[in-house]
């Protein structure tokens, strides 16, 4: 073999190794991304559950405020009548 052929063969082998390493790294990145997506989905589910709990609590607060307003109106009406 002459020097040119050896040089081209060396470059070809180095390029192939580099491409394999890049492909392997991309495969690892893909697995990492899929794992991150899975973790994100779990976090989203947890946040949705917490939002539901907060919405339920807010509903209870609104009901409580409505009841308190009714009681205040019931107590204030006689006072307003007396002052007239």
Q: What are the defining features of this structure?
A:
0% strand, mainly alpha
The protein's oligomeric status is: single chain
Gyration radius (Cα, Å) is 36 Å
SS element count, helices: 1
Q: What is the approximate shape?
A: rod-shaped
Number of strands: 0
Q: Helix coverage percent of residues?
A: over 70%
User: Structural class of the secondary structure composition?
Assistant: mainly alpha
Series of H and E elements: H
Overall average residue pLDDT: 85
Low-confidence stretches: none
How many angstroms does the end-to-end distance come to?
117 Å
Which range does the strand content fall in?
under 5%
Query: Main β-sheet, in a few words?
Result: none
Describe the model.
It is a single chain. With 84 residues, the protein is an all-alpha fold. The termini are far apart. The model has no long low-confidence stretch (mean pLDDT 85).
Structural topology:
Elements: H1 3-83
Summarize this structure briefly:
The protein contains 1 helix and no strands.
């Amino acid at each position: 073999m002459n020097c040119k052929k050896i040089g081209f063969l060396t470059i070809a082998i180095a390029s192939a190794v580099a491409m394999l390493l890049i492909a392997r790294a991309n495969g690892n990145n893909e697995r990492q991304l899929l794992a991150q997506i899975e973790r994100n989905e779990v976090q989203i589910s947890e946040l949705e559950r917490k939002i539901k709990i907060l919405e339920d609590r807010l509903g209870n607060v609104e009901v409580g405020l409505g009841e308190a307003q009714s009681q205040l109106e019931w107590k204030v009406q006689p006072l307003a009548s007396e002052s007239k």
